[in-house]
Protein: RING-type E3 ubiquitin transferase
Amino acid sequence: MTDPVIVASGQTYERAFIKNWIELGLTVCPKTRHTLAHTNLIPNYTVKALIANWCELNNVKLPVPVKSVHPSTETRADLSGLETQVKKLVEDLNSDSIDTQREATGQLRLLAKHNMDNRIVISNCGAITLLVNLLRSTDLKIQENAVTALLNLSINDNNKTAIANAEAIEPLIYVLETGSHEAKENSAATLFSLSVIEENKVRIGRSGAIGPLVDLLGNGTPRGKKDAATALFNLSIFHENKARIVAAGAVKHLVELMDPAAGMVDKAVAVLANLATIPEGRNAIGQQGGIPVLVEVVELGSARGKENAAAALLQLCTNSNRFCNNVLQEGAVPPLVALSQNGTPRAKEKVHIFFWGVLGLKAKIS
Structure:
């Protein structure tokens, strides 16, 4: 950095680059993903002094601040042409012709797939509300195009908020329940994308989306199951959603998906690790035969899978002597010892707590 500035979230960025970010219409903090209360850039004199001091101590000439890069005339002309094209497509979304709506949603779907400028222009032209309305279209192709366009648009963080504010969550649930296989997959993926924003985790959880996501987890295509598991993982980060996910029957499907043949072990065990932090989750894992498969993941899984499986087993053992006995009976100690030597730092921490906290406590009780 040569010209550090503070934005409303309290994060510090190089002036030229955060200025370009804001000029593109992006009003969320790149690091925290929270909406900026204002777009004022306040010089960070402390960091600037640290940089100058470092340069002086290391005999480095203080670099000249990077100048803000403004779009060229050619780029502005390209954007103008794009806006004209998008405005026509947005008008066509209101057409009474099914064929015209199909063509317009298909074109917007493709445009939104390719780059950030397209996504910003499509949003600025008012497409999001109309696309949300078309999620309830009786024409499956229009519905599929609309949900995929929204998924592509949601890559832009501002659009995540705009889509949620356009009351998209209930129509997305409708697509989960009624759409084609591809539409269901993309609806689940859109809900995952929206749930990156913290307040959307709450809105989605309270909207009734978890039941249909769990149904897709159990009965969807392989890709649909992965999209559902990813969305449920993100939603399970918010504590209130954990009980809803357990009550909807997710644990049974997650345990089944820990079969390596399903290719979803890491996704499934990550969700189970979150659910194991509540009593209902631990009981469901015990009742649905989750303990043997968790022990198997500790022994044979990927580094991330072992880490999450150890975290889940720790929760089970810390809170229930019965579950702790079950874990030990499944032969968990040898793979846990191996993990304590070769695992990730988080996995080693969990195993350390397991041995000294859980087993130490058991020894005292015995």
Summary: Residues 83 and 189 are 27 Å apart (CA to CA). The radius of gyration is 25 Å. The longest strand covers residues 4-6.
